[in-house]
Amino acid sequence: MERHLALALPQKFKRRVDDPSDEAEHQSKRRLVSSAYGRTVFGVFCQPYPTPILHDWMRLSDKIFSPRFSATSKEGKHLQGGLKSDLSLSFLDESFGAACKGFYVVASSRGYLLCLNKSSRSQNTDYVICNPMTKEFEVLPRSQHAHVDVAIALIIDTDTTDSVTSIDELEFKVAKTAPPNPRGMWSNLIMEVYSSSTKGWLQKNVVADVAFRLDVPWRSGFAIGDASFWTVVFNAPPNHPHWVKEITGLVVYNFDEDGGGAKLIKPPTLGGIGVEFSVPVSECFGSCRGNVVYSRCDENVMEVWRLTDFKEVEEEWIMIHTVNLVNISIYPPEFRSYIGLDEVGNVNPELLGFYSIDFNLVLISFSDQAFWYNLDTKEAYTVDKDVGTVRTYFVYEALALEGNQGSQD
Fold first, then answer.
1. Looking at residue 261, what DSSP letter applies?
2. If we measure between CA atoms, which residue out of 31, 113, 110, 39 comes closest to residue 73?
3. What distance in Å separates the CA atoms of residue 343 and residue 336, rounded to the nearest whole number?
4. Which residue numbers delimit the F-box protein At3g26010-like beta-propeller domain (predicted)?
5. Which residue, 81, 167, 124, is CA-closest to 409?
6. 217-245: string of b/e by CB count within 10 Å (b at 16+)?
7. Cα–Cα separations (whole angstroms), residue 269 to 105, 300, 323
8. CA distances (Å), origin 24, targets 1, 19, 373, 409
9. Which H or E run includes 95?
10. Full-prediction pTM beyond 0.90?
11. What is the structure's pLDDT at 367?
12. Omega into 217 within 30° of 0, i.e. cis?
């Protein structure tokens, strides 16, 4: 582990990892475990997706696109090695028989996964919610409307989740949304909502005050409390630089509030903190400790922001991190030489997500590897290698209850 981390870090950080005198300090910084927030991140589910290009020339088997779990904590490794848990989700394949083509993970929340039956990939109609710790699952009735591209969010009742002993007792909603037409921008959405209390789907029409386009299908929605969030693209307002034509934002629908209105959340203004941003190379919305968070980067700078309250009329963003990316790369020297980078060259990262209990950690990929990157210590933790297909990553977070972590060392 130590050797791998040393190879994966810039030269100026290697001494800190290799120095045994600092081992206790670095152990405390490196451990990705539960906090006062009361929950544990066990790891990340990586979900590859087939694309038309891949199918045209590779004709890959369904197994290539099966979800994979990567442990990022001691608890996650125990869970991965346990006999009770099944993080490959093979228990779903076995339960559905030989005709089953497998499942995609499409959402994750509080220890539960929402999975799409691969046989309905072109229609997005057949879903299963499961607990890989206990191998329990529930098949949802087929949704009423088929859409090629959808954004989906799994909303778990936070007041009752931690006390349930069976998936039958779980209170949850599934919010599945799609535009009237995948082309162009629209100010209204067709949303289907499944409720565990009614055991059925209900259609809603959601209207926003600005036209937008859903950023699907590779970005999952997320939920905070009883509100669902989807990443969207909308036309840039007049106060933006002329070269910025479109802006990435969020649409939020709060089930706690009456009416069918949706709110558009805009990202922090470019250059608003004295850093003159170019058009971001990559940007990402997500959640951490019950907050909406946003990160963006260009070739020089990475920023991480927190939204004070998504229910407010006007957005108020607070910057919590800014990192200079110049001369920083997590590639080992031999790999940098192989791809033709000089010693001070830099590879732009792609932002993928956030660690749900720690604002310091972002999930990023550099070319063909995905990492947790600590913005405070500048340390990196490998999550996934050989990233050659389109992938989505789902943080798997739950209570570390006695008996649900599998075998213990």
1. B
2. 31
3. 8
4. 100-333
5. 81
6. bebbbbbbbebbbbbbebebeeebeeeee
7. 33, 17, 17
8. 15, 11, 20, 21
9. helix 90-96
10. no
11. 63
12. yes
- What would be the CATH architecture of the domain defined by 31-398? 6 Propeller (2.120)
Joined together, the tokens standing for residue 371 give 């990492």
CA distance 335 to 364: 18
Cβ–Cβ < 8 Å for 187, 232:
no
SS3 label, residue 327: coil
Q: Read off the tokens for 270.
A: 């470019």
Tokens at residue 148, please?
């090629």
Number of Cα atoms under 13 Å in the Cβ half of residue 92: 28
Segment 294-350, tens digit of pLDDT: 998 877 778 899 999 988 878 899 999 888 766 555 544 444 444 444 444 455 678
Cβ-Cβ contacts under 8 Å for 163 (sequence gap 6 or more)? none
Total length of the chain: 409
pLDDT band per the 50, 70, 90 thresholds, residue 369: confident
User: At 48, which amino acid appears?
Assistant: P
Q: Report the C-alpha gap between 290 and 316 in whole angstroms.
A: 16
Backbone torsions φ then ψ of 379, nearest 5 degrees: -95, 155
Phi-psi region for residue 83, left (φ > 0), alpha (ψ -120 to 50) or beta? alpha
Number of separate helices (H) and strands (E) present in the chain: 7, 23
What is the per-residue pLDDT across 54-103, written as a single tens digit (0 to 9) for each? 444 444 455 567 888 888 777 777 777 766 677 878 888 888 776 677 88
Write the CA distances from 70 to 41, 139, 326, 351, 394, integer angstroms. 11, 25, 29, 18, 10
How big is the chain by its Cα radius of gyration, in Å?
21
